[in-house]
Design a protein that fits this description.
Blueprint lengths: L11 E2 L14 E2 L5 H4 L2 H14 L10 E4 L3 H14 L7 E5 L9 E3 L10 H4 L2 E5 L6 E2 L2 E13 L4 E5 L3 E4 L15 H4 L3 H4 L16 E3 H10 L4 H30 L8 E2 L1 E9 L5 E7 L7 E7 L2 E6 L1 H18 L2 H4 L4 H14 L4 H21 L5 H6 L13 E5 L3 H4 L4 H13 L9 H10 L9 H17 L11 H15 L5 H26 L1
Parallel strand pairs: 1-2, 2-12
Antiparallel strand pairs: 3-6, 4-5, 4-6, 7-8, 8-9, 8-10, 8-13, 9-17, 10-11, 13-14, 15-16
This protein binds adenosine-5'-diphosphate.
């Protein structure tokens, strides 16, 4: 632990909250700049909406969502229209405050008029979302899945998924929502932090029973009932890749602002927590993405009234230790340098992970002792077990468990690359940002983009370009997302780009309009670049 920073550079920095916890200039950091902002409920819902507009079928794993307060009239109008079209439709909606976690402030409603407008919605924006009424039940209980995903690199995109995850159970038998049971959080919300307070919560020493189980134990059960578990995994992998493809444009804008191209480093990686709900028909639905998933492997137990103790949680330990151990294996800076002694380094790394399960008091002392030993073993290339590392002994080579993190991208890139359209729009945006360290496009940058791509003509004058810029930028900035910088944010640019595409290719569907405009811009910019080279 370096609470006050550290002068000597490290290979890997493990930040507790965000990329900005320290000023880092080299090595690898376990957080991407802007990740926390990008996965907030509102930002994620906006990014998903953009993808749903372009690829409605591919992105139907995210519930229809509206952003409050600004889309309240739209929400009311759309629900009314759908009810008129289908009078037997009796929907339920879930309202989730932006930036909330652990079920905080969440409530269910049957009708848009039930939204609690008093004060909080104005001061605390929220997402209202279609509630999935028919989840898959196990032992009559609703549950969700927490899957760990390693975003190892943004450019080129590299994604790994942990082969096992956690299933977190409700503690009251599930019933479809009615006005009577809407308020029963132990029936509808699967959050561990809520259900732990229910008298029915079961801490189990086994990973197959209780209120928190491994996902693999659920899969075994489903498989024994004849479910197509292979198809389920492939749907989950596809959901994860598509979600990350929706997040990368925004992440790239933050990345270039904090780590301008050409700088030696640092590079970033990050473990994300994906919360997924399975529908009765086994279709996975994305609930949310967590930038800082809990890595605790203990839980609090009340020994006697008012006396609590941290006790190991076997299910958390089984899943989380493997995720951290394998993340360190994959980002290990020594891997390239000394492939032959890699296994020995990994033994030390796994020894570190195991010590994290130790109680707090011992923790500092042991990590210090081990960090000194790690330096020593890195030099020697020997491989101690936890006990031996602590005792200062060395171990003969021993096989490590196989990787629990499975690479899914670029492995399956050819099935998903066609979805990366907004990524290409973001590349155009970044190209015209100009000043290093910024995330917003000024009016001059926008004009230069239009000029270089030759998008203005007698029907679309530069004055009209300026009006488009001002209209869209003003609206986005009034939504109060980020007042720190003035100018056009990426999502506003994407909206402007879609407008331009619709103007230019009127008769095509949105996806084809956008794809055609991207190709035109890329082609014209390549020509400009080519000319510059010739003149140069
Ligand atoms: P938080 O960050 O506060 O945990 P989530 O989006 O994860 O917010 O929602 C909390 C819980 O509410 C989820 O774990 C899930 O059980 C339930 N939930 C959330 N969204 C939906 C939905 N659209 N349909 C059904 N249940 C949902």
């Amino acid at each position: 632990q370096f609470p006050f920073g550290r002068r000597l550079p490290c290979d890997i920095y493990w930040h507790g909250v965000s990329f900005h916890d320290n000023n880092i200039f080299s090595g690898q950091v376990n957080k991407f700049p802007g990740m926390m902002e990008t996965v907030r409920k509102i930002t994620l819902s906006r990014a998903m909406r953009t993808m749903q507009d372009l690829f409605p079928l591919e992105y139907n794993f995210y519930p229809r969502s509206w952003i409050l307060p600004e889309e309240l009239p739209l929400f009311v109008a759309e629900v009314r229209m759908m009810k008129d079209r289908n009078p037997s439709w009796k929907p339920t909606f879930i309202v989730k405050p932006d930036g909330g976690c652990q079920g905080d402030g969440i409530y269910l409603i049957k009708d848009p008029s039930d939204i609690r407008l008093t004060g909080s919605i104005q001061s605390r924006p929220a997402v209202v979302q279609e509630y999935i009424c028919k989840p898959l039940l196990v032992d009559k209980l609703k549950f969700d899945i927490r899957l760990y995903v390693l975003l190892k690199s943004l450019e080129p995109l590299e994604i790994y998924i942990a082969k096992d995850g956690l299933s977190r159970f409700c503690t009251e038998p599930y019933q479809e929502p009615t006005l009577k049971n809407l308020h029963q959080v132990f029936m509808h919300l699967t959050n561990y932090s809520l259900n732990i307070h229910s008298g029915n919560f079961i801490h189990s020493a086994s990973v197959n029973t209780g209120s928190k189980r491994t996902f693999s134990s659920i899969l075994c059960r489903l498989s024994s009932r004849g479910a197509d578990v292979k198809k389920l995994w492939s749907d989950i992998i596809s959901l994860v890749i598509k979600t990350i493809i929706a997040l990368t444009p925004e992440l790239k804008v933050y990345y270039q602002s904090d780590i301008p191209a050409g700088k030696p480093g640092p590079t970033c990686f990050q473990i994300l927590g994906f919360d997924i709900l399975l529908m009765k028909n086994l279709k996975p639905i994305l609930l949310e993405v967590n930038a800082n998933p809990s890595m605790r492997i203990e839980h609090e137990q009340e020994l006697s009234p008012g006396v609590f103790e941290n006790v190991p949680s076997p299910v958390d330990e089984e899943v989380k230790v493997a995720v951290i151990r394998d993340t360190l294996r994959l980002v290990d800076p020594q891997k390239k340098k000394r492939k032959d002694t890699q296994d020995s380094l990994l033994r030390v790394v796994s020894a570190f992970c195991i010590t994290w399960s130790m109680k707090d008091k011992q923790h500092k002392h042991h990590s210090l002792k081990l960090s000194l030993k790690l330096k020593f073993y890195l030099k020697l290339g020997s491989c101690p077990s936890t006990e031996q590392a602590e005792a200062g002994e060395e171990l003969p080579e021993a096989a490590l468990p196989s990787l629990c993190l499975k690479q899914v991208f670029p492995k399956y890139a050819k099935h998903f690359s066609y979805l990366r359209l907004v990524d290409r729009v973001a590349a155009l945006f970044i190209r015209f940002l100009g000043v290093k360290g910024t995330t917003k496009l000024g009016p001059t940058g926008f004009r230069t983009f239009i000029r270089n791509c030759k998008l203005s003509n007698s029907n679309f004058s530069m004055a009209a370009v300026d009006i488009l810029y001002i209209d869209i930028t003003r609206r986005w900035n009034s939504m109060g997302i980020d007042h720190k910088e003035s100018g056009m944010c990426l999502q506003a640019f994407v909206e402007a780009f879609f407008c331009l595409a619709q103007r230019k290719y009127k008769s095509l569907p949105l996806h084809d309009q956008v794809a055609s405009l991207i190709e035109l811009c890329e082609c014209r910019l390549a020509a400009v670049h080519g000319k510059r080279l010739v003149w140069g």
